[in-house]
Amino acid sequence: MTVLSPAARERLAAIRAAGSLSALCDVVDAADDHEAYFAAKDAWRQLRGRELDAVSDAVETGERVPGATVRVGERTVHVHGITHADTTAEREYLREHVHEFLDAGATVYCEQGIRGMYFQDVPGACAMDDYRWALRECQRRGIESHVDGDPFDSLTEDVGDLAAQFQAAAFSLVDASGDRFGRRFERAVGSVASEFFRSHADHATGSDFASFRLRERAAEAPSELWRLQRYYECAFLPQPLEREWLRRHDPELEFVTHARNARMADYVVAHADGTQPNSGPVADEPSAKEREFGDVHLVVGAAHQPGVRYYLERHRDDDRRVGSFDVVLD
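^ thats the sequence. predicted structure below, dont judge the formating
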C-alpha cells in the first residue's frame, strides 16, 4: 500500500487550505498566480494520486457503481460520475443500478439532462436544476453567452467554438493511431495534441486527450468508470482555485461547470429534510418521510464528481450553508 510521507501530506494540506491563487503562490513558491496554478496542478496530480492509492475506498463506494461517498448529517450521499455519452452499454449499466438504489429505498438525483437521456421512464429518478440555474445566473450578471440553441436538446455542454470540434476530431485520430502504432506513440502524440488545442480555460475543465480516451473507454465499458473518476480527482485542484482560474478566463464556462457543482451539492442538502419543493419533472416521487435518512445517489458527469464531493464535504464540516434555496423551474 502507498504511504504518503509527512512532507507529502503537509503539501497536500497546504494546497487544500489555499483559498486563492495568490495564497497558492507561497505554497508552491511561485512568482505569480499563473505560475502558481500550473505548479500546484503538477504537485496535486502526483500527490492526490498517491493519496487515493493509500486509501483504496477514496473513489469507490463499495458498491458495483464507483463514486465518492460523503456523510452529511444523517444521510450518506454517493456521487457517481459517468460519461453521459448516451451509449447502450452505459445506459443499461446505469438503469440496472439506479433501479437497485430505488428498490433499496434510496433517493436518486441526476444532473440536469441526464434524466432525460437515461431515466425518462423511471419515476424515482429526479432531475436537479443545475444547468438552468447556471444560465439564469449568467443572465443576472450580464455575462455574454455563447451557448447556442436549447441546452436541453442534448448534453453537449461545450461552450467552446470551432476549436472544440477540431480538438475532438484530433483526439479521435490520435486514439485510432494507437491501434496501429502502439499506445506509447498514442500517449506521446496525445500529449502534444492536448497542449496544441488546449486553452487556459481547458486546464480548469479537464479537457485533454487523457480524459477523452478514458471517457471513450468507459462509455463502452462502464466497469472502467472508476479510472475516469480517478483521473478527474487528480486533474482538478480544490474548487476555489479552479473556479478563480476559470472565472478569470471564461466567466460563463465557470458557471456552467464548477459553479454547478456547488449548486448540485446545495440542492441535495436543501431537499434532504423535505422542506424544499423538488423541481424534478417526476411523477409519484416518494415523500421525504418515506425515505427518511435513506441514502442519496447523485448521477453526474464524471468531471463534476470531485467538485460535488468537495461542496458536500463543506456541508459535512459545517463550512457551508444553503440558506434560502429557490428552485429554477423555467
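Residues 147 and 159 are 5 Å apart (CA to CA).
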